């Protein structure tokens, strides 16, 4: 399999991302937005990681980052692609409030911050985005149920995953069409010592009207059990 490359950024983008990390560390003192508050660790393990995703979404107009927390990967994508519009979504209001302040301080005009669960947003703004991305939110099958109702037919879903990704997708093999999706494709890359992948599903058909289900149903009753 061909390895994914990290997106090359300009000096101006690098300096904006460093400013983002500085804002993130300050905000972390108010609300826990990310595990580490060390800018070097955040750069090496978080921003660098998201730059691999960036090479997979280049050219996409409307992106939504579901479960964005402190803005990862969405803020990195917004800095890399000023012509794209990036929606940052998190169910925790206190995180969204702090993230809104970071976005304002960075003067990022191509970003919206929304506090809601993905199921609520998808009910109101069904299949509106070209691409939905997520990092460290939940296992792939549940995540796909969150993301698919937000994405238009012809768009794609991208999930950043560690080495255990195969265990997550195996039980659902051959069933993804129930969510209007192709079988997932793994785009591998290496982050330091860690073998990682971006899982990509193409949205090949409109999703059934029963999705999104009510908030919380996706974790309780796996969609694939009846598919
Ligand atoms: C572990 S954090 C990951 C944050 C960030 N993506 C990162 O890589 O650092 C997961 C976030 O997903 C949010 N989340 C979980 N399920 C969600 C849903 N259905 N809709 C919106 N946000 C959700 C949580 O509130 C939490 O902030």
UniProtKB/TrEMBL annotation:
<dbReference type="Pfam" id="PF02527">
    <property type="entry name" value="GidB"/>
</dbReference>
<comment type="function">
    <text>Specifically methylates the N7 position of a guanine in 16S rRNA.</text>
</comment>
<keyword id="KW-0808">Transferase</keyword>
<dbReference type="InterPro" id="IPR029063">
    <property type="entry name" value="SAM-dependent_MTases_sf"/>
</dbReference>
<dbReference type="GO" id="GO:0005829">
    <property type="term" value="C:cytosol"/>
</dbReference>
<comment type="similarity">
    <text>Belongs to the methyltransferase superfamily. RNA methyltransferase RsmG family.</text>
</comment>
<keyword id="KW-0949">S-adenosyl-L-methionine</keyword>
<dbReference type="GO" id="GO:0070043">
    <property type="term" value="F:rRNA (guanine-N7-)-methyltransferase activity"/>
</dbReference>
<protein>
    <recommendedName>
        <fullName>Ribosomal RNA small subunit methyltransferase G</fullName>
        <ecNumber>2.1.1.-</ecNumber>
    </recommendedName>
</protein>
<keyword id="KW-0489">Methyltransferase</keyword>
<feature type="binding site">
    <location>
        <position position="135"/>
    </location>
    <ligand>
        <name>S-adenosyl-L-methionine</name>
    </ligand>
</feature>
<keyword id="KW-0963">Cytoplasm</keyword>
<feature type="binding site">
    <location>
        <begin position="118"/>
        <end position="119"/>
    </location>
    <ligand>
        <name>S-adenosyl-L-methionine</name>
    </ligand>
</feature>
<feature type="binding site">
    <location>
        <position position="67"/>
    </location>
    <ligand>
        <name>S-adenosyl-L-methionine</name>
    </ligand>
</feature>
<keyword id="KW-0698">rRNA processing</keyword>
<dbReference type="InterPro" id="IPR003682">
    <property type="entry name" value="rRNA_ssu_MeTfrase_G"/>
</dbReference>
<feature type="binding site">
    <location>
        <position position="72"/>
    </location>
    <ligand>
        <name>S-adenosyl-L-methionine</name>
    </ligand>
</feature>
């Amino acid at each position: 399999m061909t390895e994914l490359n990290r997106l090359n950024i300009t000096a101006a983008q690098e300096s904006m991302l460093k400013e983002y990390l500085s804002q993130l560390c300050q905000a972390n003192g108010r609300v826990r937005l990310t595990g580490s508050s060390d800018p070097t660790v955040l750069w090496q393990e978080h921003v660098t990681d998201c730059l691999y995703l960036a090479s997979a979404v280049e050219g996409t107009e409307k992106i939504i980052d579901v479960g964005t927390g402190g803005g990862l990967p969405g803020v990195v994508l917004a800095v890399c692609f000023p012509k794209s519009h990036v929606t940052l979504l998190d169910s925790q209001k206190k995180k969204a409030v702090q993230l809104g302040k970071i976005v304002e301080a960075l003067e990022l005009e191509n970003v919206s911050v929304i506090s809601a669960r993905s199921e609520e947003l998808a009910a109101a703004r069904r299949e509106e985005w070209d691409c939905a991305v997520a990092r460290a939110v939940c296992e792939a099958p549940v995540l796909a149920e969150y993301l698919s109702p937000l994405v238009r037919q012809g768009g794609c879903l991208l999930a950043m995953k560690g080495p255990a990704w195969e265990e997550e997708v195996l039980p659902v093999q051959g069933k993804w069409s129930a969510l209007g999706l192709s079988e997932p494709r793994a785009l591998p890359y290496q982050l330091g010592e860690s073998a990682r992948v971006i899982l990509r599903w193409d949205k090949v058909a409109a999703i059934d009207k029963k999705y999104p289900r009510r908030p919380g149903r996706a974790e309780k009753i796996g969609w694939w059990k009846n598919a």
